[in-house]
Amino acid sequence: MTLVERLRNPTWESDGPITEDKPAKLNVARTRADMEEAAMALHYSTFGYLLPTADQKDSMTIVREAATEYAQALEMLVPDGPDKTYLLRKLREVAMWANIAITRDADGFPRGE
E strands within the chain? Predict the structure, then answer.
């Protein structure tokens, strides 16, 4: 059984009734082979730098400008506080993920491969 299958269908170990003092334990082996298998599920370029094409750079610029305009509107309209901070951080995160999405196909492979 693969690591993914074990995570989807865990078994619970228990040697008797489950109590507050003796909870059940999730049995999911974390071996080196399991970790290598999980790592292999990622595309080889997942953590690598993908040089965007000229068209991708243009798309990234458009997305970045749109995110900047939205951030400026939020800065003017939303009162200062933790919610505003969170909102702007998430917008920044979304803009970064948009850049990644522009350089990749839906299956995670770099566009053009």
Answer: 11-13, 25-27
